[in-house]
Design a protein that fits this description.
The strands form 5 sheets. Strands 1-2-7-3-8-15 form a 6-stranded mixed β-sheet, sandwiched between helices. Strands 4-5-17-16 form a 4-stranded antiparallel β-sheet. The protein has a 4-stranded antiparallel β-sheet with strand order 11-12-10-13, covered by helices on one side. Helix 1 packs across helix 3, helix 1 crosses helix 9 (about 400-420) and helix 7 (about 345-355) packs across helix 9. It folds into 2 domains: about 5-200 and about 335-425, Zn peptidases (Aminopeptidase, 3-Layer(aba) Sandwich); about 205-335, Alpha-Beta Plaits, CATH 3.30.70.360. The chain has helices spanning about 5-30, 35-50, 130-150, 175-180, 230-250, 295-315, 345-355, 370-380, 400-420; strands at about 55-60, 80-85, 95-100, 120-125, 125-130, 155, 160-165, 185-190, 200, 205-215, 265-270, 280-290, 325-335, 365, 385, 390, 400, 420-425. By secondary structure, the protein is an alpha+beta fold. It binds zinc ion. Zinc ion binds near residues 101, 134, 135, 168 and 192.
C-alpha cells in the first residue's frame, strides 16, 4: 500500500509539466499595477474549471482611511480585481487560504534582460520572466498542490481558498479587501519566493512621495534660480540620517538585531526638471522606509513628518514656504512576528521535512512588506510565508527554480493534507 504522501507526491510529479506550462502562460500576462485584469481572468477561469466557486472582488477604495488594513492609494480601483476560488471540504477539518499576489513590478530595463521579461523562457532548472518568482510560481504551486490531492484520489475535510490578489507591490489593498470581506481561514499560506524557508518576522513599511519646488531660471543667472533637483538631493541626504537613527533602534529587537539594514530607506523613483539647460522647477521622488514589528505605522509616519519639519528649521536651504511636500502614497502597514511552534508551523515543518529528506525547516526575517501581515496583524491568523527558490526578484533576469517549484508544490500539498485533513475521494 502506498502512503497518501507517496500518492500526493506522485500526482505532483505527474502534473508538473502542466504546472510549468500554466506558470509560463501566467508570466506572459503583463500584470503591472492596474493591468492585472487579464491575468486575473485567466486565474478565475482556471479555478472555475477545477470546480471552485469563484468570487471577484474589486479592491475596496471606500475602506481606505476607515479600516486599518488599508493603505493610501493614488490610483482609481475601477479595474482592480481580486479573485478567490473556494472549495468546501467534506467537514471536520481546519480551513486554509493560500494567498498570492498576481501583480508584478516593472521590468527595470527590458534591454538588459537576456530574454524579454514577459516572454518566459526555460533554461535548465530555471524559468525566466518578470513575476516568475515573485510570485506567480507560488500562486501556481498552490493551485497545483490542491490539484495533486484531487488527482491522487483524495479530498480535503477543511475548506480551502486560493486567493489571487492585486496591489501587493504597492499598497496591500488587495489582500486588505479580501480580509475585510471575510475571506479568512484557520491558517494562511503565502508562497512568496523565500528559498524554501519560513518567514519568522517581517518589517512594517510606509511609502511616501516627496516633492520639492525650485525656482526655474536660465543658467546665465543661476543665482536667481533654485534647483528642485538639488533640493531633493539635499532632502534625501537628510533622510539618510533618519534611516541611520531608525536602524540604530534595532539593538535588542528580537529577530531584527542582527540585520545590517532593517529599515532600508529606498528611493525608488525620481523625476525632475523639464529642460537640459534650465534650472529645474520641480522634482518628485517616491520611496519607502521600514520599521519594526509591533509598531504603529501611523506613529512612524508622524515621526517622518516631524523629522521633515525639524530639518526645515535646521537647514535654511529647505526652509522656505512650500519648498518641500510629503504625501503618503502606498503601503502603511505594521510588520508581524510569527509565534514560534504554532500548530500551522509544526504542520509545515513536517511537510517540509517530508520533501527535504528530513531536513529541518529554516526560518528567517524578511524586512519588507508582505500581504501575510494583513491576516496576521488584523486577524491574528497564523500566516506562513514559504515558497520557492527565486533569483533577481524586482531585478534583471528574474528567475525561479523549477525543481524548487516542484518541491514547494509537494510541500504545500502535504501541508494542506495534514492541516485540513484527508479522506478518500
Ligand atoms: Zn511578492
Amino acid at each position: 500500500m502506498k502512503s497518501v504522501h507517496d500518492r500526493i507526491a506522485a500526482a505532483v510529479d505527474r502534473l508538473f509539466e502542466e504546472e510549468v506550462q500554466f506558470l509560463e502562460t501566467l508570466v506572459r500576462f503583463k500584470s503591472l499595477r492596474n493591468e492585472e485584469t487579464a491575468a486575473q481572468d485567466f486565474i478565475a477561469t482556471g479555478l472555475r474549471e477545477r470546480g471552485y466557486a469563484v468570487d471577484r472582488l474589486r479592491t475596496d477604495a471606500a475602506l481606505i482611511g476607515k479600516h486599518p488594513a488599508f493603505s493610501p492609494a493614488t490610483v482609481d480601483y475601477a479595474e482592480s480585481w481580486n479573485v478567490v476560488g473556494r472549495k468546501a471540504g467534506s467537514g471536520g477539518g481546519r480551513s486554509l487560504a493560500f494567498n498570492s499576489h498576481v501583480d508584478v513590478v516593472p521590468a527595470g530595463s527590458d534591454r538588459r534582460w537576456t530574454v524579454p521579461p514577459f516572454e518566459p523562457a526555460r533554461d535548465g532548472d530555471w524559468l525566466y520572466g518578470r513575476g516568475a518568482g515573485d510570485m506567480k510560481a507560488g500562486l501556481v504551486a498552490s493551485i497545483f498542490a490542491l490539484d495533486a490531492i484531487a488527482a491522487a484520489g483524495l479530498s480535503l475535510r477543511g475548506d480551502v481558498q486560493v486567493q489571487s490578489v492585486v496591489e501587493e507591490e504597492i499598497t496591500g489593498n488587495g489582500a486588505a479587501t479580501l480580509f475585510a470581506a471575510g475571506f479568512t481561514a484557520d491558517a494562511v499560506v503565502s508562497p512568496e519566493p523565500t528559498d524554501e524557508q519560513l518567514v519568522r518576522a517581517n518589517a512594517g513599511v510606509i511609502k511616501f512621495r516627496l516633492e520639492t519646488r525650485g525656482r526655474p531660471a536660465h543658467p546665465r543667472e543661476p543665482e536667481s534660480g533654485q534647483s528642485a533637483i538639488d533640493l531633493m538631493i539635499r532632502l534625501i541626504g537628510h533622510l539618510r540620517t533618519l534611516e541611520r537613527k531608525w536602524t540604530d533602534e534595532r539593538e535588542g529587537k528580537r529577530w531584527f538585531g542582527d540585520l545590517a539594514n532593517p529599515v532600508a530607506l529606498t528611493i525608488g523613483t525620481i523625476n525632475g526638471g523639464d529642460w537640459i539647460a534650465s534650472i529645474p522647477s520641480d522634482c518628485v521622488a517616491e520611496g519607502r522606509i521600514g520599521f519594526y514589528p509591533g509598531e504603529d505605522p501611523q506613529v512612524r509616519a508622524a515621526e517622518v513628518e516631524a523629522y521633515l519639519r525639524h530639518i526645515q528649521t535646521e537647514d535654511r536651504t529647505l526652509s522656505g514656504e512650500g519648498l518641500v511636500r510629503l504625501t503618503w502614497v502606498g503601503v502603511m502597514h505594521a510588520g508581524y512576528e510569527l509565534a514560534e511552534d504554532g500548530e500551522a508551523e509544526k504542520t509545515l515543518r513536517a511537510a517540509h521535512a517530508a520533501t527535504h529528506a528530513g531536513t529541518a525547516l529554516p526560518s528567517y526575517v524578511m524586512a519588507c512588506y508582505l500581504d501575510a501581515a494583513v491576516f496576521s496583524v488584523h486577524g491574528n491568523i497564523p500566516s506562513l510565508v514559504y515558497g520557492p527558490i527565486a533569483e533577481n526578484i524586482h531585478g534583471i533576469d528574474e528567475r525561479v527554480s523549477l525543481s524548487s517549484l516542484k518541491r514547494v508544490t509537494q510541500t504545500l500539498a502535504l501541508f494542506a493534507a495534514d492541516w485540513c485533513g484527508l479522506e478518500e475521494a
